[in-house]
Amino acid sequence: PTVFLNGEFLPHDQARVSVMDRGFLFGDGVYEVIPAYGGHLFRLQPHLQRLDNSLQAVRIPNPYTEPQWQGILEELVGENAGTDQSVYLQVTRGVMERRDHAFPADLKPTVFAMSNPIPEPDPALAEHGITAISLDDIRWQSCHIKAITLLPNVLLRQQAVEAGAAEAILLRDGEATEGAASNLFIVRDGLLITPPKGPLLLPGITRDLVIELAARHGIPYREGAISEAELRGADEVWLTSSTKEIMPVTTLDGVPVGDGRPGPLYRQMHGIYREYKQAVREG
Ligand code: PLP
């Protein structure tokens, strides 16, 4: 498959990055993951806006304008427009002559992007849901930045997988914030609740879309903190992400959520989401 690296499209096995790249040495960079359905990049503008926010937050200049980004990503997707894909892009601060934590202002960012096929979500997921465990959030205080420095997320997800779960739901100071690679919603008495944006969670594009779809379809929702007790007492728990879409959590820490099956509000939102996605796919 073809990848994009620093202005060039080339076969992935010919793409080379310096060992002195700050992404390699320090994890000094940011990234995005954007699905494409039927060749159409899904929610492209909000993804590019979040990329720009991440870059600004870590003081890496944005190497491209939005139309330039769009051109690059569409070219990568265009190769396999017939299959659903996930585009990964990352921008690191660039290459230095010698290793030094502090960075000069004039580095040229390293830009990498690739596109890979993704399967449709497994229908068993909508039918049975997933298992999650809760874990203490061991990450930093700037989780709103989509940084490539993912070691805590990697360790948390691995711990979940080794416990037989699909995802970890993270707790900090008595509140549930998000998953290791997903945002969190609960349903209580028909009300959809998700934590407000802030430095302790990633502002998910899927999260925003779910809220937008709830508003459009008259589903009551609120952005508010979710305490650990509220998480454990919820009628429904969902996790959202661009590639996994909406996942109903039916077991949390070995205990059934609600009646242990995907709930009625999940089934409604899942249908609404699928329709929205299909409309995008058909252009
Ligand atoms: N939270 C974290 C920590 C993530 O890594 C992700 C994405 O993988 C999300 C939330 C979901 O974000 P999005 O819906 O934009 O994919």
TrEMBL record:
What's the catalysed reaction? 4-amino-4-deoxychorismate = 4-aminobenzoate + pyruvate + H(+)
Pathway participation: Cofactor biosynthesis; tetrahydrofolate biosynthesis; 4-aminobenzoate from chorismate: step 2/2
Q: Which InterPro entries match?
A: Aminotrans_IV, Aminotrans_IV_CS, Aminotransferase-like, BCAT-like_C, BCAT-like_N, Class-IV_PLP-Dep_Aminotrnsfr
Q: Which PROSITE patterns match?
A: AA_TRANSFER_CLASS_4
On the tree of life, the source organism's domain of life is Bacteria
Single GO term (MF): 4-amino-4-deoxychorismate lyase activity
What is a single Pfam family found in this protein's UniProt entry?
A: Aminotran_4
Spell out the GO cellular component terms annotated for this protein, sorted alphabetically and separated by semicolons: cytosol
GO annotation, biological process: amino acid biosynthetic process; folic acid biosynthetic process
Q: Which UniProt keywords apply?
A: Folate biosynthesis, Pyridoxal phosphate
Q: Required co-factor?
A: pyridoxal 5'-phosphate
Q: What's the EC number here? A: 4.1.3.38
* Role of this protein: Involved in the biosynthesis of p-aminobenzoate (PABA), a precursor of tetrahydrofolate. Converts 4-amino-4-deoxychorismate into 4-aminobenzoate (PABA) and pyruvate.
Family indicated by similarity? Belongs to the class-IV pyridoxal-phosphate-dependent aminotransferase family.
| Name listed for the protein in its UniProt record | Aminodeoxychorismate lyase
User: Native species of this protein?
Assistant: Thiohalobacter thiocyanaticus
